[in-house]
Amino acid sequence: MSELVCPLDFRYGRPEMKTLFSEASRLRYLLEVEAALTRAHARLGHIPQEAADTVSRVARNTDGRVRIERVKEIEAEIRHDLMAVVKALSEQCGDAGRYVHLGATSYDIIDTANALQFKEALTLVRETLVRLGVALARLAKEHRDTVMLGRTHGQMATPITFGLKMAVFLSETLRHIERLDQTMPRMTVGKMVGPTGSGAGLGDDALELQDAVMQDLGLTAELGATQIVQRDRYVEMFALLANIATSCAKFATEVRNLQRSEIDEVREAFDAKKQVGSSAMPHKQNPIVSEQVSGLSRLVRANIIPTMEDAVQWHERDLANSSAERFLNPHTLILTDWILVKTAEVFEGLRVFPDNMQRNLERTQGLVLAERFTVLLTEAGMGRQDAHEATRLAAMRAIDKGTDLGAELKADPEVKKRLGAKGIDQAMDYATYTGVSAKIVDRVLAAAKTNGVPVPEAVAWPV
């Protein structure tokens, strides 16, 4: 038995997605295209209908007559992978076998099979995007009014709500669903116009034949092809997958930061009865799933470069893309899907700690409300720049002395005169300085429903 080498074989990836890129599935896609080609030839009167029926029946391979092992045997002899499939199919079709692959070139079959594969794979990716959207929508709704510290440059900024943070992530996820829906028609494209794109070997009705094949398979035809479907399409898909993976890494990085011991506002799900956080430190509860998402997303982003290189072809086609795509296509789609699944799991099981969010707000001693006082002083008649400077100086004094911003503002006669001690105290309420956060959450949730992402009823989340 051979040793497994690739982590996709034993560690990462959903069976549903990995199955699409298995040897058996790849053979199934190739046979499906070859059968569709014979049906199109029969439809246009090029070959007998009986022959097309025979090839189609054998190509369905329900009885396993076209064996992977046989394909490999032939390939070892002739050193051509697609022709090995053609021969393995033909020898099982009797006299009808002479019509298999009629007028086609290898990449008519391969690229059209790729389109079938991409169609199924991207459908799974879309389903998982929706799943992630549902998890984010639930958190946004549940924590619509949960006040927390906003941070910029890794420093305390102004108060926001956790619901707003989740709504921002949800809005990004909705855009990816929209992008995928726009990209899907451009990825479900095949071709059947021969080795240089002229269709010469397919006859005067080559375009009708191509349309018939694609209609049969539920695809559309490349508008203008060389020997291959043009790889700008692949670049677009890989860029989208990289974009999705990047968003997941961004969401996961936020969880990793908020789970830092000194912040502790959220935590990944953790099975305290069984799960081991560290081989050395028994107390650890690490954000390992979010870290996995961050790490794997780097690979997806990296794959955009060789995909772009593959789009640069010599004349009507060279073979340099073929070997790279054997890695790029399965690895990128399987990993992106897995990243999405893991990200959805993180947010489905996320533990949120509003009390710790409030604690971290209080630790700022009102400094995160400095912007508010700049606005209030301006409204009270002070020039905006003067108001900013007065608040800044009060904030600097509070930082140096370890005191409360409100106390330092009250110590400024001009500020106290304009706002009053009571007004300053009232303005020190963090919960009343979240702006239109709640309205934004409501708008994003409404957009989610409009775009087919169900918004669950709010529930009590684990703590």
Biggest sheet: strand arrangement: 1-2
Please mark out the parts with pLDDT under 50 across 5 or more consecutive residues, or reply none: none
CATH architecture of the largest domain: Up-down Bundle
Per DSSP, the total helix count is: 20
The best one-word shape is: elongated
The CATH class of the largest domain turns out to be Mainly Alpha
The main β sheet shows up as: 2 strands, antiparallel
CATH superfamily of the largest domain: Fumarase/aspartase (Central domain)
The proportion of strand residues reads under 5%
How is the CATH topology of the largest domain named?
Fumarase C, Chain A, domain 2
The tally of strands reads: 6
The helix/strand class is mainly alpha
Nearest-integer average pLDDT = 94
Structure description:
With 463 residues, this protein is mainly alpha-helical. It folds into three domains: 21-99, Fumarase/aspartase (N-terminal domain) (Fumarase C, Chain B, domain 1, Orthogonal Bundle), CATH 1.10.275.10; 110-272 and 283-353, Fumarase C, Chain A, domain 2 (Up-down Bundle), CATH 1.20.200.10; 367-427. The chain is 62% helix and 5% strand. It has helices at 7-10, 15-20, 23-43, 49-60, 68-78, 81-90, 106-142, 162-187, 206-217, 232-258, 288-302, 304-310, 320-348, 354-363, 370-379, 384-401, 405-410, 413-419, 421-427, 437-450; strands at residues 147-152, 155-161, 189-190, 220-221, 266-267, 351-352. Strands 1-2 form a two-stranded antiparallel ribbon. The chain has a two-stranded parallel sheet with strand order 3-4. A two-stranded antiparallel sheet has the order 5-6. Helix 3 runs antiparallel to helix 4.
